[in-house]
TrEMBL record:
Predominant location: endoplasmic reticulum
Highest taxon of the lineage: Eukaryota
Protein name, per record: Prostacyclin synthase
Listed EC numbers: 5.3.99.4
Recorded catalytic activity of this chain's protein: prostaglandin H2 = prostaglandin I2
Family the entry assigns: Belongs to the cytochrome P450 family.
PANTHER family per record: PROSTACYCLIN SYNTHASE, PTHR24306
Subcellular location: Endoplasmic reticulum membrane
Amino acid sequence: RSKNDPPLDKGLIPWLGHALEFGQDAAKFLSRMKRKHGDIFTVRAAGRYVTVLLDPHSYDPVIHNQDSLDFHRYAQVLMERIFLLQLPNYQPDKEKAVMKQHFLGKNLSALNSTVSKHMHNLLKTEMPQNQKDWKEDGLFNLSYSLLFKVGYLTLFAGEQSSDSSHLAVVYEEFKKFDGLLTKLARGTLKSADEKKTAQSVRQRLWRLLAPAALTGGLGSTPWLDGYRQVLKEEGADDEMQARALLLQLWATQVGQTRECSVRRNLMFFMRSFLP
């Protein structure tokens, strides 16, 4: 080790290191390590030394350093493991180009305008008219709900008016899926009930996000149209397109909250444990 290497935390148990603690509660473990060592550190887990990066502002230089790191293979493994998504002709560079086209420059200004519109409408809709109808809720639940719904309407519904019943169902199903995502990624769904729940939630979200349902119900957006076209070029049928949309729905929600941000960091951590 050189003096510029990140702090190393081997844990108390030889060879095993922090594997047990990580397996029990990965988010809690990473939060504890962050308080102890900062945003970048190396831990020992099951005989491996894993460097963890928790500063989101440093992700781009790491991800774009393709000479040292190649995330494409791991991305495909996780896509299949979490979302059961298989793209015969996966073209990540083409997908990135579509994202840049619609999420930067003038298009970003249009998105910001749509975000503001949906935020205003949602707050107005969900604000009780009668003081007796007010209810208490945690700040996290309020923020999670609003940010999810605004993001969903902006990227998957565009300027169309919100279908409150559809939106509520998508939100509730997504919460269930998000709660199981870390276990799906690590392949640690143990009980039959957990596995059954994960599969049923995915299937319900696929139906809700199916291209036919979106175009026939909530409408569409330029980004969504462009992404669907890329999926078709990658050889994705309607079923795989719905699965890909679930991936994009999750990806666009990551980082909205501290808990979601921790789960995003897990994607870097878990790549070291993939077979």
